[in-house]
Design goal:
The chain is an alpha/beta fold. The chain has helices at about 5-20, 45-55, 70-75, 100-110, 130-145, 165-175, 185-190, 200-205, 240-250, 265-285, and strands at about 30-35, 60-65, 80-90, 115-120, 150-155, 180-185, 210-215, 255-260. The chain has an 8-stranded parallel sheet. α2 packs parallel to α3, α5 packs across α6 and α6 (about 165-175) runs parallel beside α8 (about 200-205). The longest helix has 20 residues, at about 5-20.
Length: about 290
């Protein structure tokens, strides 16, 4: 990287960090994702954007690399933000590691401060012997994004190679690039970690923790599936308020995603309930 590019990249990330530090603790950006697949109304992007604007969300997360331009236009038209794009990375030997459209999408979203939430698949969960190969792939992706304001986040997901937040932090530290961080996902943590002691994990992740997802959930569920671990924010026995207060105490000031995967019915109904719950929870985040 030339000295000019180094300086430019450093200036971008210093600017982003200053925005996060200056953010009002009571106004963490709040956006839903995975709202498309199970909506009984099968809304178009334009209909989703109008609904989210009406309900008071700051924007939305987009799943996969299809129709990103259409999503952006629908959000621009109502003044909302595209927060994240979820995509997969495959670290299995001999496999294409990531969708070649990644380069095109990077160019499309540059200047919008979008995060890529990376589901890193292809090998046995938490197998650290894969680290060198995965680091090479992630550094290649980091290099492609180095002159943009895009962030690459390792997204812990049940059954993925990066399955735990500890995996995400370990790998991100080895990649050691200023645009590679991690995301904490409440529902997947509930499924893979029975300790329920999230504070030390959040503290471990904090230097690279650039996004968090929440949802209503029960404290424990011994059944497979997500019915108890992904609910609207106004339901479930897990204390989301305490979790959010812990994030604040640790200094987190980034975006908060609302996980909506698998929630059926009319998406407007559960999104409206979750927004009402979020507004109540946010009162406890104010200084």
């Amino acid at each position: 990287m030339t000295p000019h590019r180094v300086l430019r990249t450093a200036m971008i990330w210093l600017a982003l960090a200053s925005v996060v530090r200056a953010a009002d603790p009571a106004a963490y950006p709040f956006f839903p994702f995975c709202i498309d697949w199970h909506d009984a109304k099968k809304r178009t992007f334009e209909e989703q954007a109008a609904m989210l604007k009406e309900l008071g969300y700051a924007g939305v997360g987009h799943i996969w690399l299809d129709k990103v331009a259409e999503r952006i236009k629908s959000l621009d038209d109502v003044g909302l933000k595209l927060f994240q794009i979820t995509m997969t990375v495959d670290v299995a030997p001999g496999k294409e590691p990531y969708d070649p459209r990644f380069k095109e999408v990077l160019a499309l979203i540059n200047g919008r401060r979008v995060q890529f939430a990376l589901l890193v698949n292809g090998m046995k969960p938490s197998d650290s012997s894969v680290d060198p190969h995965a680091v090479r792939i992630l550094r290649e992706m980091s290099d492609l994004a180095k002159d943009t304001d895009v962030q690459l986040l390792l997204y812990p997901h049940l059954g993925s190679w990066v399955e735990r937040i500890e995996d995400a932090v370990r790998v991100a530290d080895k990649v050691n690039r200023p645009n590679v961080g991690v995301m904490f996902n409440l529902c997947h943590w509930l499924r893979v970690d029975k300790s329920r002691d999230y504070k030390p994990l959040l503290k471990l992740a904090m230097p690279r923790l650039w996004a968090v997802s929440i949802n209503g959930a029960d404290e424990f569920d011994d059944q497979p599936g997500w019915q108890k671990y992904i609910q609207p924010l106004d339901r479930g026995s897990f204390d989301v308020g305490k979790f959010l207060r812990t994030l604040k105490e640790l200094g987190y000031r980034g975006p908060i995603g609302l996980q909506c995967y698998g929630i059926g019915g009319d998406a407007r109904d559960h999104l409206a309930r979750s927004m009402t719950a979020w507004r109540e929870l946010s009162k406890n985040l104010a200084d």
